[in-house]
Amino acid sequence: MEDVVVYQEAGKRWNRLADDARSAVGETIDLVEETTGLRLGSTIRVRLTTTDGFALAFEQHARRLSERILASGVLDAIEDPRRRARVKARFNRSSAMGPMTSTHRLLLCRPGASVMPADDGHPEIFLIPSFMSYPGPPARSLRLTIAHELAHAAQHIAAPAHPIEYLSAILTRNSADRRGETAPQSAALKEGHARWCSREVMSAMYGEPVADRFPEDPRGSLRLAMVDRLSGPLPGFRRLQRLRDGAEEFVRQVLAHGGTDLVNRIWADVDLLPRAHEIEDPTRWLTRTTDHTHNRASVAADQSK
User: Fold this and answer.
1) Bridge partner residues of 71 (DSSP)
2) Which pLDDT tens digit goes with each residue over 204-221?
3) 37 exposed, middle or buried (CB, 10 Å; 0-12, 13-18, 19+)?
4) Whole-structure pTM value
5) What is the DSSP letter of 73?
6) pLDDT tens readout for residues 139-176
């Protein structure tokens, strides 16, 4: 039996949501593990927080991660000296990050829920009630959100024991590809996988397919509409949305080919992360990764001789 720890830091008006969130975790966790083939560990942490609280947690996480990446020296693997200098400068800025602007906070909090690792590396589910589209949420909507975020937590736990090296490998490949055509699409894949998982969980609970959105509460619609207007014109935003939409179908096709075992190999091997054109055409990913697996097997066989 998993231990569900809920931190209620969003104010008294959200006490009911804290209780509902605890119940939703208990109702969905087994289905998430069964659906994904991943394990979530013995403790699930959920933190209800304010916009300012989430922004502060994000700033601390970004600063901590940037400092660790810079100290590790892994960015030296970027071959192009100019690009290496630009990437290091970006992480130096992040390590010295000050308070975010109000616009940045709005964009950051738009989803209403997110997963971030705590100081000890354990993933925490953050809920930002003022940005969730249901103030005293229907049980169905909250279960969908919790299932989605539990999938993200499971992805984090399934990642290798040395996340800095894993993340740095992604950064190195991204930096080597100016157009992003061959860069690994980690964020899009994670979102597509979580969307697929939450839909499957909800279908199992209610016996029918469900949308990934439920009708929004009109009291929150003005704020949400404002944030959407801010984010829509941003460079690359629509392309990222298309990639995330395509990533869910990518997950379904890979599952049809090799089941959850094949999908879950991706979390531990950065070389198996799909590229943008592979998300659009999963058969290209299957061809490349089959060759990759055969090559690794051959190297291992040679080394054992």
Assistant:
1) none
2) 998 876 655 444 444 444
3) middle
4) 0.82
5) T
6) 788 999 999 999 999 999 998 655 666 666 666 655 55
Q: How far apart are the first and last CA of the chain?
A: 46
**Dihedral sign, CA of 289, 295, 297, 300?**
negative
Query: What is the chain's alpha carbon radius of gyration, rounded to the nearest angstrom?
Result: 20
What is the token pair recorded at 157? Answer: 């736990």
Please state, in angstroms and rounded to a whole number, the distance separating the CA atoms of residues 68 and 73: 9
Mean pLDDT, the chain, rounded, equals 79
Tell me, what's the pLDDT at 300? 44
Among positive and negative, which fits the CA dihedral 55, 188, 216, 116? Answer: negative
DSSP for 191-226? HHHHHHHHHHHHHHHHSS---S--PPPHHHHHHHHH
Residue 126 bridge partners (DSSP): 47, 114
